[in-house]
Write a structure and sequence with these properties.
Elements lengths: L1 E6 L3 H15 L3 E5 L10 H6 L3 E5 L7 E5 L4 E5 L11 E6 L2 E7 L9 H23 L3 E6 L12 H4 L7 H12 L3 E2 L13 E2 L11 E2 L2 E5 L1 H4 L2 E6 L15 E5 L1
Parallel strand pairs: 1-2, 7-8
Antiparallel strand pairs: 1-14, 2-4, 3-4, 5-6, 6-7, 8-12, 9-12, 10-11, 13-14
Helix pairs in contact: 3-5
The chain binds one DNA strand through loops.
DNA sequence: ATGGCTACGATCCGTAGA
């Protein structure tokens, strides 16, 4: 089973990149973030032609998440139960025998801002939700854009980024609280090359300089980790014309 | 030097992302 996550930064703009990538990478499941379109505008027909069925939690202009799978995702749940939120950031569904939670975690804007406070409250609610889901599902994956670079080795220039949003200690602490539930960062289950990132700023030729951050992740439960055989980032779509600023991240399971 | 893109929905710039 091959599971991917990709922040497409507008599904309308990126649909050709997505269908090309699906044809080439052939994931069984993919979690999409930042659709930036409402459910009525979701391209079900195009994706069904590409061989995928979708569970969608869309929103006009901002946010929006979806899970695509070969068979229609089952037992779909949206949002974080008990956490009232206008922003459509979470959708969960079962694909095969794996429970998949697709997340678009808040950006946080800047440390100390209102959006930063929202981010930390949101992560606290996510942790409670995932604690509950782990009790219900031995094989759980949480995949998407976490907007946190967990360690300095996930940051191209840790000194320049020190204390900044995406990297600050309270955000990393929120990430570690997810790890403390028993979830594993699939990427770190394996030996990895240095300087692997999943996001590069559109400005300042960030991609060409590999000035990136690893903020997109696939977390897996202990039981699912036992079956994890590989984890990687595919930089290829970031090289295309008019790319998303994020690259797809991948985890594979036996 | 704190900027520099990109997408969106509203104009002919503001909001947001990360």
């Amino acid at each position: 089973m091959k599971l991917a996550a990709w922040n497409v930064n507008s599904l309308k703009v990126r649909l050709p990149h997505l269908t090309d990538w699906l044809a080439q990478a052939r994931p069984d499941v993919i979690c999409l973030q930042e659709l930036k379109l409402e459910d009525a505008k979701f391209p079900h027909a195009e994706l069904q032609a590409a061989g995928y069925r979708a569970a969608v939690f869309g929103q006009k202009t901002y946010n929006g998440v979806a899970i695509l799978a070969r068979a229609a995702p089952a037992d779909v749940a949206t949002g974080i139960p008990g956490f009232a939120d206008e922003q459509k950031r979470v959708i969960a569904a079962t694909a095969g025998d794996v429970r998949v939670v697709c997340v678009y975690c808040p950006n946080g804007q800047s440390v100390g801002s209102e959006k930063y406070d929202y981010k930390l409250r949101w992560f606290a609610a996510l942790k409670e939700y995932l604690a509950h889901e782990l009790k219900r599902h031995a094989q759980l994956a949480v995949a998407g854009d976490f907007n946190v670079a967990p360690e300095d080795r996930d940051v191209h220039d840790p000194k320049a980024w020190e204390g900044q949003v995406l990297v600050s200690e309270p955000e990393r602490s929120a990430w570690r609280a997810l790890i403390a539930l028993g979830l594993k960062d699939s990427f770190r289950l394996f030996e990895q090359p240095e300087k692997i990132y999943s996001w590069w700023d559109y400005r300042m030729m960030g991609f060409r300089r590999n000035a990136g951050l690893r903020i997109d992740h696939v977390l897996v439960s202990a039981e699912l980790a036992k079956h994890c055989t590989a984890s990687s980032v595919d930089k290829a779509p970031r090289k295309l014309e008019r790319p998303s600023d994020h690259a797809p991240v991948i985890a594979e399971f036996s």
